[in-house]
């Protein structure tokens, strides 16, 4: 499981600058999807063979007037408790502030490792930049420059030292899915509908991280694993009011699954949070099925309205199948499984090089990539670079200037030819010149 690193610190110390640096390489892989609002506070990255998730808690800060005592926002505190490591940024140019001390006091009680990082230290001797911050009593401070990149790799190597390398191959060979969505859309009702009908083989506690539970079950002769994030299955015994939505748990469960089932509430508007959660699945490259729940008790006008809303706000999920279900009445659940199977198969498909190259050549014959200046990119052949999501690596010359629209055109060609319904798809380029 990938570790999650939380970036913490008062405003203006450089959290978002560092966040961008830590997520840049990976983000470049996701071609801009029209309509996808990228949440710039959660992202993926990798240093060497070590992948990680990173959260910029600056996005959670309440807007406070000057002079009001700084309080860490609730979401920030939650992130501090749930992250695997904390990078606490301070500003080497302004020096220690009262806010830094308040945050340090809170972080000293943290169970996770905390790395005190002095930013904006370009051109300064490390000992000078860090000297006064020893007072925060969080160990030896490290100096970096987020905007220049100095010391960032060393920092991440240290943070990630005790976390595992990326897994080579997916360990299971059946759908391992997670049900995601904002609170109250019907996730636990759906989990219970799913498990109530089927024979649960084992409550597998082994390999369980935090409080997510992995449950193996069989349905119509096929194997599945459902990742049940805490509070879903056990809900009902706990007070509903204390149930809280956990970004980190959701992201990590998505990472660990090979299929995500996004639940929406048909009786409410599609919210920003729905789009954000959908965005997690898309960025993680997971196969996706959408369950529009609470389809009972809707009149035709309401049904039309919500379908229109979905098309408008979640258009970037056009690769996924949508199901209109009632978890409460257990309607539509069987069809949902057909799409889970299909999405899983698509995500794990082996794409043969000769066929990939044939489709590529066909695509180029139909529509040449646009010229930039005197040079026209030349697309020569393609091979598969990965699964879940399928990655297609296109080789050729002068490929760096290919516009996103052409990349999407190629994606659509490959998707149709290989019937990759239900999974995101990534096209990458490898230029010889
Ligand atoms: P945040 O509020 O903590 O997310 O901080 P930002 O990333 O928005 O940075 C605040 C300001 O500090 C911006 O003007 C950045 O350009 C600047 N900044 C960030 N990192 C560095 C750095 O390493 N060196 C210098 N000199 N400025 C930086
Ligand atoms: P969660 O927070 O996403 O796990 O949501 P729950 O499963 O706890 O459901 C929230 C509320 O929605 C509960 O009162 C459920 O009874 C109700 N609910 C769940 N599924 C349906 C459905 O298909 N139709 C209707 N009408 N209500 C539902």
From TrEMBL:
<dbReference type="InterPro" id="IPR027417">
    <property type="entry name" value="P-loop_NTPase"/>
</dbReference>
<keyword id="KW-0677">Repeat</keyword>
<feature type="binding site">
    <location>
        <begin position="119"/>
        <end position="122"/>
    </location>
    <ligand>
        <name>GTP 1</name>
    </ligand>
</feature>
<dbReference type="InterPro" id="IPR005225">
    <property type="entry name" value="Small_GTP-bd"/>
</dbReference>
<dbReference type="InterPro" id="IPR032859">
    <property type="entry name" value="KH_dom-like"/>
</dbReference>
<keyword id="KW-0547">Nucleotide-binding</keyword>
<comment type="subunit">
    <text>Associates with the 50S ribosomal subunit.</text>
</comment>
<dbReference type="InterPro" id="IPR006073">
    <property type="entry name" value="GTP-bd"/>
</dbReference>
<feature type="binding site">
    <location>
        <begin position="181"/>
        <end position="188"/>
    </location>
    <ligand>
        <name>GTP 2</name>
    </ligand>
</feature>
<protein>
    <recommendedName>
        <fullName>GTPase Der</fullName>
    </recommendedName>
</protein>
<keyword id="KW-0690">Ribosome biogenesis</keyword>
<comment type="similarity">
    <text>Belongs to the TRAFAC class TrmE-Era-EngA-EngB-Septin-like GTPase superfamily. EngA (Der) GTPase family.</text>
</comment>
<dbReference type="Pfam" id="PF01926">
    <property type="entry name" value="MMR_HSR1"/>
</dbReference>
<feature type="binding site">
    <location>
        <begin position="9"/>
        <end position="16"/>
    </location>
    <ligand>
        <name>GTP 1</name>
    </ligand>
</feature>
<feature type="domain" description="EngA-type G">
    <location>
        <begin position="3"/>
        <end position="167"/>
    </location>
</feature>
<comment type="function">
    <text>GTPase that plays an essential role in the late steps of ribosome biogenesis.</text>
</comment>
<dbReference type="InterPro" id="IPR016484">
    <property type="entry name" value="GTPase_Der"/>
</dbReference>
<feature type="binding site">
    <location>
        <begin position="56"/>
        <end position="60"/>
    </location>
    <ligand>
        <name>GTP 1</name>
    </ligand>
</feature>
<feature type="binding site">
    <location>
        <begin position="293"/>
        <end position="296"/>
    </location>
    <ligand>
        <name>GTP 2</name>
    </ligand>
</feature>
<dbReference type="InterPro" id="IPR015946">
    <property type="entry name" value="KH_dom-like_a/b"/>
</dbReference>
<feature type="binding site">
    <location>
        <begin position="228"/>
        <end position="232"/>
    </location>
    <ligand>
        <name>GTP 2</name>
    </ligand>
</feature>
<dbReference type="Pfam" id="PF14714">
    <property type="entry name" value="KH_dom-like"/>
</dbReference>
<dbReference type="InterPro" id="IPR003593">
    <property type="entry name" value="AAA+_ATPase"/>
</dbReference>
<feature type="domain" description="EngA-type G">
    <location>
        <begin position="175"/>
        <end position="348"/>
    </location>
</feature>
<keyword id="KW-0342">GTP-binding</keyword>
<dbReference type="InterPro" id="IPR031166">
    <property type="entry name" value="G_ENGA"/>
</dbReference>
């Amino acid at each position: 499981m990938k570790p999650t690193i939380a970036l913490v610190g008062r405003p203006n110390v450089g959290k978002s600058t560092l966040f961008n640096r830590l997520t840049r390489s990976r983000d470049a892989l996701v071609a801009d999807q029209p309509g996808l609002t990228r949440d710039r506070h959660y992202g993926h990255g990798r240093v060497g063979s070590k992948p990680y998730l990173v959260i910029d808690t600056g996005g959670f800060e309440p807007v406070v007037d000057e002079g009001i005592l700084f309080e860490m926002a609730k979401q920030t505190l939650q992130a501090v408790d749930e992250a695997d490591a904390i990078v606490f940024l301070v500003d080497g140019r302004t020096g220690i502030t009262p806010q830094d001390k308040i945050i340090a006091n809170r972080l000293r009680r943290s169970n996770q490792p905390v790395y005190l990082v002095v930013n904006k230290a370009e051109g300064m001797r490390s000992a000078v930049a860090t000297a006064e911050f020893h007072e925060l009593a969080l160990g030896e401070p490290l100096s970096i420059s987020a905007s220049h990149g100095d010391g960032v790799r060393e920092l991440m190597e240290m943070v990630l030292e005790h976390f595992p390398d990326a897994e080579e191959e997916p360990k299971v060979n059946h759908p391992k899915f997670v049900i995601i969505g904002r609170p109250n859309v019907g996730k636990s009702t759906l989990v219970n509908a799913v498990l109530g009908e089927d024979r649960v083989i084992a409550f597998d506690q082994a390999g369980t991280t935090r409080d997510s539970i992995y449950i193996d079950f069989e349905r119509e002769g096929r194997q599945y694993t459902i990742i049940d994030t805490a509070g879903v299955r056990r809900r009902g015994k706990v007070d509903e009011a204390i149930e809280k939505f956990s970004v980190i748990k959701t992201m990590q469960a998505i990472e660990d699954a090979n299929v995500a089932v996004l639940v929406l509430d048909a009786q409410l508007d599609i919210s920003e949070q729905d789009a954000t959660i959908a965005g997690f699945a898309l960025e993680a490259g997971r196969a996706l099925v959408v369950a529009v729940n609470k389809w009972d008790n809707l009149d035709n006008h309401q049904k039309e309205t919500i379908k229109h809303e979905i098309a408008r706000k979640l258009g970037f999920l056009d690769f996924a199948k949508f199901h209109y279900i009632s978890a409460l009445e257990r309607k539509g659940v069987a069809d949902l499984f057909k799409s889970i199977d299909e999405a899983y198969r698509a995500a794990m498909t082996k794409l043969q090089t000769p066929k990939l190259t044939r489709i590529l050549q066909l695509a180029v014959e139909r529509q040449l990539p646009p010229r930039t200046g005197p040079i026209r990119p030349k697309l020569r052949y393609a091979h598969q670079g990965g699964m879940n999501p399928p990655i297609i690596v296109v080789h050729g010359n002068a490929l760096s200037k290919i516009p996103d629209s052409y990349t999407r055109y190629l994606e659509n060609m490959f998707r149709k030819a290989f019937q990759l319904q239900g999974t995101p798809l990534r096209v990458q380029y490898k230029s010889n010149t």
